[in-house]
Amino acid sequence: MIEMRVMGIALDTRSGSPIVVLNDKENRKALPIWIGSAEASAIIRKIENITSTRPMTHDLFISIAQQSEFEITKVEINDVDDQTYFSTIFMYNKELNKTIEIDSRPSDAIAIALRAEVPIYVTDNVLAVGLVSTDLEKDEQEAREFKNFIKDIKPSDFEKLLKKNFESDQ
Known about the structure:
By secondary structure, this protein is α+β, with helices and mostly antiparallel strands. The protein has 2 domains: 2-134, Roll (Bifunctional nuclease domain), CATH 3.10.690.10; 136-170, no CATH class. The chain has helices at residues 37-47, 57-67, 106-116, 124-130, 136-151, 155-169, and strands at 2-11, 18-24, 29-34, 71-81, 84-93, 98-104, 120-122, 132-133. An 8-stranded mixed β-sheet has the order 6-5-4-7-1-2-3-8. Helix 2 (57-67) packs across helix 3 (106-116).
């Protein structure tokens, strides 16, 4: 699982649909997730610190959690099926010593995570499906380094390694 942050909202040029883009901490990998307009607006409002006179839905969720003495601790984007992403909001009640998990659309979970200032995690299976590299130069450099590393490996190197490991197990 990797912690990611919201890079911003983009528009799909083909469909006009909003996309929330998550980046890893090194800004090397991006995860685009297509979302609805209302959720995109909620995310943008928080990113740009735009307030409203009345609570918006995600603010209401935060308020209900706080009034119920639950602390939102994290959100996870933890599954994908046929380009539909799934996520979970984790909430903890100290008095009950209990964590509850709430099924959520990723767009809502992200909007809530931004408001609660909690981390957004993405599981490996989701990353395997949707991740896009944003640092092609560094990826190419790592690929060259790996190719240089493996070009000099001989079968006898593996034999020595296996023998060394076998001896240390004895």
